[in-house]
Amino acid sequence: ARINGFHGLEDTLCVYPRTSRFNHACAPNAEYGMRQGNIMRVRAIRSIAEGEEVCICYLGENVLLSKAVRQRVLQDRYYFLCACSLCAMEADELAARACLSCGVRIPPGCQTPCVRCGAEASGEIGIEPKDEEALEIQGA
User: Fold this and answer.
1) How far apart are CA 113 and CA 111, in angstroms?
2) SS (H, E, C) the chain
3) What pLDDT score was predicted for residue 108?
4) CA-to-CA distance for 136 and 65, rounded, in angstroms?
5) What is the pLDDT at residue 32?
6) With contact defined as beta carbons under 8 Å apart, do 80 and 30 qualify?
7) Residue 8 and residue 1: Cα distance in Å, rounded?
8) What is the predicted pLDDT for the residue at 44?
9) For 57-87, what is each residue's pLDDT tens digit?
10) What is the pLDDT of residues 103-122, one digit of tens each?
11) I need a labelling partner for 81 at 20 to 30 A (CA). Which of 13, 65, 121, 124 fits?
12) H helices then E strands: how many in the chain?
């Protein structure tokens, strides 16, 4: 049940017949959340084409980890190597993108000011190579 289970609000393990069937993608098109009473809601986070599979991310809050760490976590917890479109890319689109002012992780392609310190994307947000090393240690 752990593989197809979700952690509930009261640190319980819940299995939902429909949502337990969603496959994983590191850059999903849907997300899930829990409400009081461990009621699960799933919603689209981008447009989903007709016939496209609806996928959620199994990594929870750890979506901005490097490809190597994501692969290791998914293999250790869910017993598969991810082959989603993000993992299939040659360049690691999520690794080491951080605000150069405060270090908070920045989603790829984000052009809005940093949510923590307000730094503008124009010049103060960029790649910080040391950040991936720190994440690999924390994400283990």
Assistant:
1) 7
2) CCCCCEECCCCCEECCCCHHHCEECCCCCEEEEEECCCEEEEEECCCCCCCCCCEECCCHHHCCCCHHHHHHHHHHHHCCCCCCHHHHCCCCCCCCEEECCCCCECCCCCCCCCCCCCCCCCCCEEECCHHHHHHHHHCC
3) 62
4) 7
5) 85
6) no
7) 13
8) 95
9) 988 766 667 888 889 989 988 899 999 988 9
10) 776 666 666 777 788 877 54
11) 13
12) 3, 8
Output b/e per residue, 28-55; b: 16+ Cβ within 10 A. bbbebeeeeeeeeeeeeeeeeeeeeeeb
12, 45 Cβ separation under 8 angstroms: no
pLDDT in tens, 26-56: 989 999 887 787 778 899 999 999 999 999 9
**Are 70 and 26 contacting, i.e. CB atoms less than 8 angstroms apart?**
yes
Residue with tokens 């009473």, as numbered in its chain: 37
Q: How many CB atoms lie within 10 A of CB 68?
A: 14
